Amino acid sequence: MKHMTRKATRHVNQNEGLIFEKSSPGKAAWKLAPLDVPEVDTKELLGSAERKDLGNMPEVSEIEIIRHFTRLSTWNYAIDLGMYPLGSCTMKYNPRVNEAVSRLDGIANAHPYQPEKTSQGALRIIKTLSDCLLEITGMDAITLQPAAGAHGELTGLLLVRAYHDAQGSSRKKVLIPDSAHGTNPATAAMVGYAVENLKSSAQGMVDIGALEAQMNEDVAALMLTNPNTLGVFEQDIHKIAELLHAKGGLLYMDGANMNALVGKVRPGDFGVDVMHLNLHKTFSTPHGGGGPGSGPVAIKKQLEPFLPKPVLISKPDGTLGFDYERPQSIGRVRSFYGNFGMFVRALAYILANGPDGLRQTTEDAVLNANYIRKGLEGTYDLPYSIPSMHEVVFSDKIQARKGARTMDLAKRVIDYGFHPYTTAFPLIVPGAMMIEPTESESKEELDLFLEAMRSIAQEVEEDAELVKTAPHSTRVSRLDETAAARKPVLRWKPTP
Amino acid sequence: MRYLPKSPADREAMLKTIGARSIDDLFAPIPPEYRLNRDLKIPRQMAESEIVDWFRERSRENGDGYATFLGAGAYYHYRPVIIDSLISRGEFLTAYTPYQAEISQGTLQSIFEFQTMISELTGMEVANASMYDGSTAAAEAVMMAVRLTGRRSVVVARSVHPEYRQVLSTYAFHQGMPLATVPFKDNGRIDFKELEAAITSDTACVLVQSPNFFGTIEDVEAIGELAHSKGAMLVVAIAEAISLGIVAPPKAADIIAMEAQSFGVPLGFGGPYCGVIATREAYVRQMPGRLVGQTTDRNGKRGFVLTLATREQHIRREKATSNICTNQALIALMANIFMTVYGKVGLKELAKQNLAKTAYAAQQFAKHGKVLFSGAPRFNEFVVQTTEDPYAINARILGHKIVGGLPLKKFYPELGNASVWCCTELTSRSIIDTAVGHVADSERSVRSAQQEEPAEEVTR
Question: Interface pTM (ipTM) of the complex?
């Protein structure tokens, strides 16, 4: 490689087949305690419902399982290995104390239906986290039931719908900026709303003129991400809120980018009526290779009667409990109370930070993004010049002239020991390169990233093919996604 | 702040590079009237030791160390130690969704193995990478059937987990999908006559759960036959995944919506759990959620990628099969490791132990109280009807650090003083005997009180 950086060195990693390929009859990784009740005749108990055979389930020993998954794990990139600059994903450090406290016996082994009397600890955790999140967002009430961000969006829009229905005005449309996450329109469709696209202005913000023209009594809500997906704070937020409220619409905020705001500004103070948070982004719960998440929904007073059931309440005797008598509730969106284990982790994170820590976190996140912006300005095209908050969006315009597109550049980033940035999003930027460093990166790590990005730009000029065929250092390279989709192989089968 | 890797000098240097005088310059885009010029009113910054103490205190307030007879959609099974050892590896724990296949092969291959094992266990052809939980998986499976059949309405067994039904009605209401509920018979199974009457030419699917909320195994084949004869699909919810070790998978199902919590996922006061949808290959393009597929790289080497993304929200936006994005990958990994540990033989033996414990417990309870729904096979749950209010009995059992079965009044008032009890491999005989003893005492004292009552009448 031409300009190898100081960040990474290639080293040997282990090959490993599928677990089924290691299986052979008689191997086992389990041992049950002796049965202390009489054996049963399964045939007699189950009759025709008895299962005879478990198909191709594996039979392997414990050491093989440990090695199998450990080897697989070494093929992954992770925050624990280095910077993960995925825009809009807020890949920050996942503190280990969060994991430790979530595994305490009374927390990990609590049954959701155990008596209220022996659930006070869990309820206290829910209450404390709720109070913290309400203070952070400046909202009036909250539900922690939604299991992820998109699930929070669904819950939020169901609340919007219930609110309008209760007013006797069944509205048909939701406005969504063209810069929005795909979950926003998908959610609106799930709730039965027609999606109306709202064009961005030349500055990449909500076009106030367009909003004025499109806003009417048929619009239930505007779904806005703020800072938006360009990492830009919507400066006309008060006008946006006013325009919506004047016609009876509600302002929904997608909290995906809340990491730019915590401790510095509160959505409840700038006119937001309903919003969701992503505990797995802003509040440090681990992303785990794609979940679990948690998507609390915070709302203003007027939406409170419609919250999902049950709602946490404080009882006169000082204990906590659940209220199921909520006649106007939208109902349940998930069984039990949501991804409780994530509440534990998010609260541990908030307690570790306190007000000063959370503010410093936000400041560092914004500082890091601007440092990257400064460092790559000129090397990469910056389609919107307005100030960045916690993330910055470049485009591949300069490199595309040599045929290297955002995905090629991203794949080359891998060779330099980093996870790529977000490619091709937001959709309003052709060839987008969206970078969110988060607060978790040191100056040294950022400098290594800048060095890598500049080096790649130079490689494009000198030998674009090298970049277009990257990555060159991984176990597998440029997997055939078209073939995978055309003739899907979604499970292993024994070779006949 | 100990998570932040910068010295004051670093911050100064970076601000200088950026050309900002202070950090406030970077927040200038926020209109001044909205800026928060005070500390958030949240607890002060705590030391790690204080955080651990705070949560230990909560843990103690939370029934730490109680034995339990609760099931009802959340099951207490043994979790092999290696599950936490392996999922705690930072490369699994702190990785993002595997969009960049080259540096995500570990997550991708493990999901492929998960999909394979779920397919094997459910008897379906394909399974997805996970859904939020069993309840949302069931709701999404129903909406999938609506898309596949072009029909609008849904028939649901009353013996499906009440909270699954509540979630379904939330989803269905806003989709304008009419829901009809079919009652159960005195053997705990769905009422066939009522079912037959409920299915119309607009019925997209019938949703049943097996084992159902009472632990009763439904006659899924017959239900499937009936549904299919009327052009409707059959969706089967499975809340207790361990049942698949000994109970025949619902072959007649078109879609299976499963909760995999029993596969090594802690109870955790209700979540995070691991929903999953399995179905036939022909329906895969209407399936919600992520899917991992096998392919080859440019050198012909086997590898795995997220596939069929054209179903998903980030590509299709409002035309997607679902809005689901983040799912439960790490929890699916727990389930994956659990299934690998027990495997072909262990899962069967484990399920057998659950069956034996439950058979013993039901037998013991039946000696002193009334065990309902004995006319059909059950897995690891059963319903006990008492004369006394089950909350009162449970309160006494709780004194022995045992949590009794779930009283059903809230969900099934028609069953009166009934509770659903669950036994797993972790329920010891002595705990069963203690609980049975309390129910027996309760029945005896109620009986003797009843015998005394007429005497009182006379003296009055």
Answer: 0.96
